[in-house]
Design brief:
Keywords: Receptor, Signal. This is Interleukin-10 receptor subunit beta isoform X2. It comes from Erinaceus europaeus (Western European hedgehog). This protein is α+β, with helices and mostly antiparallel strands and 291 residues long. The chain has 2 domains: 91 residues, Sandwich (Immunoglobulin-like); 152 residues, Immunoglobulins (Immunoglobulin-like). It contains 6 helices and 17 strands. The strands form 4 sheets. Strands 3, 4, 6, 7 and 8 form a 5-stranded antiparallel beta sheet that branches. Strands 11, 12, 14, 15 and 16 form a 5-stranded antiparallel beta sheet that branches. Strands 9-10-13-17 form a 4-stranded antiparallel beta sheet. The protein starts with a helix and ends in a 23-residue tail after the last helix. The chain binds 2-acetamido-2-deoxy-beta-D-glucopyranose (6 copies). One 2-acetamido-2-deoxy-beta-D-glucopyranose (NAG) binds next to loops.
């Protein structure tokens, strides 16, 4: 203990004697949905009034981003989403300053994708799921991450509440329908964004659980023939999981989605030909059923 204190005192006396200001510590970027903050910790030296300055490199010259701030973070969301940025930060104290510490960051590659929005409505033995992309920070309303990442899709998990068997699906649409579920059963759904061309996944959202009812007549027009007519429950689960796993690996897009999942708007149009999957526009406003 004494030795540690001695070393610490030695270090700090030395530092003050030479008038050196320690640089900020633990420098990191916290970036979610393109809201990007450079953050750091105050160096361990109690040297009175410390302030910090952050600059960014633009056309080979550094420009100020945050100057003489007492905060330990600097918002650089206003910089372009594309391209790699070089930022640097230093400590200032009583007219002296530390060395600069560099950080590089490429928002479009490195920003984290936050949880997606999700609405789940049960109608008879189906669940209607509507997913929405998060907004981009510092852009007008309606600018979503989906408009930045063209290969935007969703990983969806659903399961019977209380069971461990989570069934994975992939959807390129904002709306999908899970059909032929068990009646009077509570299912839970969870989703995350997935950007395949960048192998980037978002944060999972909180599961939403809804209880199915029994098939009435009102949604008869929205049904496909089931994948397997009425297999024993156990077998059905296994087959679905197997297929879904294939889907997730990108090996197959087809049977499962075609028969068990369909984009909502297209599917419920009275004249939609049976088995048509792709919705011509992903911008449609889905007609969520009111139960
Ligand atoms: C700033 O640092 C220099 C040495 O680099 C030192 O001589 C000077 O006293 C310091 N100034 C203040 C105000 O601490
Ligand atoms: C810090 O700055 C305030 C005024 O901004 C001053 O009153 C105070 O004496 C300074 N503290 C030290 C330790 O220099
Ligand atoms: C920080 O980045 C600038 C610009 O790229 C470069 O000139 C400088 O050498 C870098 N400094 C360090 C310590 O890496
Ligand atoms: C960060 O900066 C952007 C653009 O300058 C601004 O729209 C946003 O509100 C700021 N966010 C915070 C948390 O300060
Ligand atoms: C899910 O099941 C658990 C017990 O396994 C129960 O406590 C909970 O209320 C159920 N949630 C819903 C939404 O039904
Ligand atoms: C995609 O990312 C995951 C981890 O997030 C990694 O395990 C996998 O190997 C990556 N795939 C490719 C093709 O880079």
């Amino acid at each position: 203990m004494a030795r540690i204190l001695e070393t610490w005192l030695g270090c700090c006396l030395l530092v003050s004697a030479f008038g050196m200001v320690p640089p900020p510590e633990n420098i990191r970027v916290n970036s979610v949905n393109f809201k990007s903050l450079l953050q750091w910790d105050t160096p361990a030296l109690p040297q009175g009034n410390l302030t910090f300055t952050v600059q960014f490199l633009s056309y080979q010259k550094f420009q100020d981003m945050c100057t003489n701030t007492k905060k330990t973070e600097c918002n650089f969301s206003s910089l372009s989403k594309y391209g790699e940025h070089t930022l640097r930060v230093r400590t200032e104290s009583e007219g002296n300053h530390s060395i600069w510490v560099n950080v590089t960051f490429c928002p479009v590659e490195e920003t984290l994708i936050g949880p997606v929005g999700m609405q789940v409505n049960a109608l008879s033995e189906s669940l209607y799921i509507h997913l929405s992309s998060p907004q981009v920070e510092n852009e007008p309303e309606g600018w979503t991450l989906k408009s930045v990442y063209s290969a935007w899709a969703y990983h969806v998990l659903y399961w019977k509440n209380g069971s461990d068997g989570k069934i994975p699906l992939m959807s390129q649409h904002d709306s999908l329908v899970l059909q032929n579920l068990e009646p009077w059963t509570t299912y839970c759904v969870q989703a995350q964004a997935f950007v395949s061309d960048r192998n980037k996944t978002g944060k999972w959202n909180e599961p939403v659980c809804e209880q199915t009812a029994e098939d009435g007549e009102e949604d008869g027009a929205c049904r496909h023939p089931p994948l397997l007519a009425h297999p024993p429950a156990g077998l059905r689960g296994i087959v679905l999981r197997g297929l879904a796993a294939l889907l997730l690996r990108g090996a197959a897009v087809g049977r499962l989605q075609e028969d068990q999942v369909c984009p909502l708007a297209q599917e419920c149009a009275p004249s939609a030909p049976d088995g048509v999957l792709e919705s011509p526009s992903s911008q449609h406003t889905p007609l969520l059923p009111t139960v």
